[in-house]
């Protein structure tokens, strides 16, 4: 166990504020050591938290949280914040069922001013808090902490545009580490790039490498050299940085301060104390390093953005992860392989991702087809409209996007793609329960919000091979379409290496039974088949939610006494509702049991545990059907 004597005295921020500023570097070092140890055991977001340690300490030292409002953007960097706000002894429960959430959550702590999980919301939320406090006559301060990756999204600029034209006290901290999850793309990060500092990196690295052996032998010399290096970088970069960044933010009506070394906690405290007393919209530009203090994460922040766990040898963290059995290919990997194969067969295919290259399985595609790959940054709305424009001119765009992030581009999905009937394929990853990331990342609404849109074709594969088949099928359409698939692996079905298709809007009966018929969609087909074994029920893999197989629904409704629908989606307006609409259309009145996610906010934790709690595991499905319709005959 790491020795953290100073951190052990800190339970809440008021304890932190009793310290002398000279003690803060030690506290930051202990906090980083504790973070390495706790995340190493539990897993979770990693490099981003290491990079925000000093900033977090300084913010809670200067600002009177929770009366002052501290809003973290996305929340990947909120673990040090949780440790300093009364949750240190619960960090071993991070992202586990019933434990701490992986993101700020209002119901978890008064210090979590705003629940987050999606990008670029912090400025707007903090502005709302500042306005409300002003109207109520309060003197509380509001601070938004946003990364340079999140600053690329339009919502951040909408909030800046609004705030800069208001007489309101607001501090926006731009945490510039040149990264989001992947390296940043686009014009804004280049605008913010530390030109002078970057030019010096090679020289400074060379000097360090050549002199380390000597400095190691001189007591305190290496520490002095490191401080000198930080000062050189800060001084050399300040003029160029300020000149570039000043014009951008001043034109938005903000007073610009920076850049400031985000790992010099004493300097941060000094600057923040000055800014807390200033009036009007302020922006503080802080330079940090993702993965700070852990060389493996510093050198590869993409790989170490999030980790499962870390192993230790001799008290030092190593790059080794716990050995895992040979895994079945994930749906994301199935999509990535299909995409490469389809692109090789059709030069019109263009792949688009809103800053989720690794998560959406596009690494190999980018390497093979760089001219037909576009990472548009954290800009889901633009990604969809951009795809629409491509489709207008004969391209066949594929937008690789998580279900939870597709929600952010709903207007563009309707207005810019569907109403114009443009052939854009949406590969909707992470559909359904996602586990440790919790409700902000759960893909539980896409069937409901997609199937009501005109011209859309919506498919839900039941296994790995079905995923490839449905991707090929929807890609061939001259219409907008979506194939939604879950996180992780399927049931281990062998996958074709061809580009075969299936009839659009037609399901298949996977099991013949007697009195009960189950209409199962996507990830619920396998649990339904398992449940059907104990119920002697018929199971239909519906494949498509829209167009839905009316003929199959009517036929099974006429030959069975009881009907069941099963989907890993909200019950309201989902696939079950589509079945009910067909029954109503054909004047069929039979007992129907809808099985989906009820009107609730889901929790975080093990996906199988969550599915069981929601009544969607195989055993739970069988029990619910039996309770409603009685035992099998």
Automatic annotation (TrEMBL):
The keyword Lipid metabolism does not apply. Mg(2+) binds at residues 148, 177. It catalyses: D-glyceraldehyde 3-phosphate + pyruvate + H(+) = 1-deoxy-D-xylulose 5-phosphate + CO2. Catalyzes the acyloin condensation reaction between C atoms 2 and 3 of pyruvate and glyceraldehyde 3-phosphate to yield 1-deoxy-D-xylulose-5-phosphate (DXP). The keyword Metal-binding applies. SUPFAM superfamilies: Thiamin diphosphate-binding fold (THDP-binding) (SSF52518), TK C-terminal domain-like (SSF52922). Its EC number is 2.2.1.7. Homodimer. Its cofactor is thiamine diphosphate; Mg(2+). One of its GO terms (molecular function) is magnesium ion binding. It comes from Neisseria dentiae. Coiled coil: none annotated. One of its GO terms (cellular component) is cytosol. Thiamine diphosphate binds at residues 76, 117-119, 149-150, 177, 294, 380. NCBIfam families: dxs (TIGR00204), PRK05444.2-2 (NF003933). Belongs to the transketolase family. DXPS subfamily. Pathway: Metabolic intermediate biosynthesis; 1-deoxy-D-xylulose 5-phosphate biosynthesis; 1-deoxy-D-xylulose 5-phosphate from D-glyceraldehyde 3-phosphate and pyruvate: step 1/1. This is 1-deoxy-D-xylulose-5-phosphate synthase. Pfam families: DXP_synthase_N, Transket_pyr, Transketolase_C. It comes from the Bacteria. Residues 329-493 form the Transketolase-like pyrimidine-binding domain. Binds 1 thiamine pyrophosphate per subunit. GO terms for biological process: isopentenyl diphosphate biosynthetic process, methylerythritol 4-phosphate pathway; terpenoid biosynthetic process; thiamine biosynthetic process. Keywords: Isoprene biosynthesis, Magnesium, Metal-binding, Thiamine biosynthesis, Thiamine pyrophosphate, Transferase.
């Amino acid at each position: 166990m790491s020795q953290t004597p100073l951190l052990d005295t800190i339970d809440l921020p008021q304890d932190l504020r009793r310290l002398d500023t000279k003690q803060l570097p030690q506290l930051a070092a202990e906090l980083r050591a504790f973070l390495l140890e706790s995340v190493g055991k539990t897993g979770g977001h990693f490099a981003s938290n290491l990079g925000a340690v000093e900033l977090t300490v300084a913010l809670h030292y200067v600002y009177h949280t929770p009366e002052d409002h501290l809003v973290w953007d996305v929340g990947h960097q909120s673990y040090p914040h949780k440790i300093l706000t009364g949750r240190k002894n619960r960090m071993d429960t991070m992202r586990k069922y019933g434990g701490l959430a992986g993101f700020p959550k209002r119901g978890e702590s008064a210090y979590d001013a705003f629940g987050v999980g999606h990008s670029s919301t912090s400025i707007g939320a903090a502005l709302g808090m500042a306005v409300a406090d002003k109207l109520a006559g309060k003197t509380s301060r509001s601070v938004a902490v946003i990364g340079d990756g999140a600053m690329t999204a339009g919502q951040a600029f909408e909030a800046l545009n609004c705030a800069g034209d208001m007489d309101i006290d607001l501090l926006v901290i731009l945490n510039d580490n040149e990264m989001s999850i992947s390296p940043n793309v686009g014009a804004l990060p280049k605008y913010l790039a530390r030109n002078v500092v970057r030019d010096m990196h090679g020289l400074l690295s060379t000097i360090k490498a050549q002199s380390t052996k000597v400095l190691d032998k001189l007591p305190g010399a290496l520490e002095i050299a490191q401080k000198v290096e930080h000062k050189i970088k800060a001084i050399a970069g300040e003029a160029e940085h300020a000149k570039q960044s000043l014009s951008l933010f001043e034109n938005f009506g903000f007073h610009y301060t920076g850049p400031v070394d985000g790992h010099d906690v004493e300097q941060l405290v000094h600057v923040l104390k000055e800014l807390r007393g200033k009036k009007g919209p302020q922006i503080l530009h802080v330079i940090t390093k993702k993965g700070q203090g852990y060389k493996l994460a510093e050198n590869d922040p993409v790989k170490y953005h999030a980790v499962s766990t870390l192993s230790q040898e001799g008290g030092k963290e190593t790059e080794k992860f716990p050995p895992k059995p040979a895994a079945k290919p994930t749906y994301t990997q199935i999509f990535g392989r299909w995409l490469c194969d389809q692109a090789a067969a059709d030069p019109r295919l263009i792949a688009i991702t809103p800053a989720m290259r690794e998560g959406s399985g596009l690494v190999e595609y980018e390497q093979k087809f760089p001219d037909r790959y576009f990472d548009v940054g954290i800009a889901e709305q633009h990604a969809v409209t951009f795809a629409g424009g491509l489709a207008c001119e004969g391209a066949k765009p594929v937008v690789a996007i998580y279900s939870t992030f597709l929600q952010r581009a709903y207007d563009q999905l309707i207005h810019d793609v569907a109403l114009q009937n443009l052939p854009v394929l949406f590969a909707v990853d992470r559909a359904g329960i996602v586990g440790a990331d919790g409700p902000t990342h759960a893909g539980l609404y896409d069937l409901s919000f997609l199937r009501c849109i005109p011209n859309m074709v919506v498919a839900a594969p039941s296994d790995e091979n079905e995923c490839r088949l449905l991707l090929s099928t929807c890609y061939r359409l001259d219409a907008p379409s979506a194939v939604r698939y879950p996180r992780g692996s399927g049931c281990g079905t062998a996958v074709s290496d061809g580009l075969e298709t299936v009839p659009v809007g037609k399901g298949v009966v996977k099991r013949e039974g007697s009195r009960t018929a189950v209409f199962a969609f996507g990830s619920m087909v396998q649990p339904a088949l398992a449940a059907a074994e104990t119920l002697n029920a018929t199971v239909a893999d519906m494949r498509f939610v829209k167009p839905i197989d009316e003929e199959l629904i009517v036929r099974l409704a006429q030959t069975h006494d009881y009907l069941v629908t099963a989907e890993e989606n909200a019950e309201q307006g989902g696939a079950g509702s589509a079945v009910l609409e067909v029954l109503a259309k054909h004047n069929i009145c039979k007992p129907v049991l809808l099985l989906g996610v009820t009107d609730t906010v889901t929790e975080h934790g093990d996906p199988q545990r969550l599915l069981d709690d929601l009544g969607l595991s195989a055993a739970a499905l069988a029990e619910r059907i039996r309770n409603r319709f009685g035992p099998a005959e």
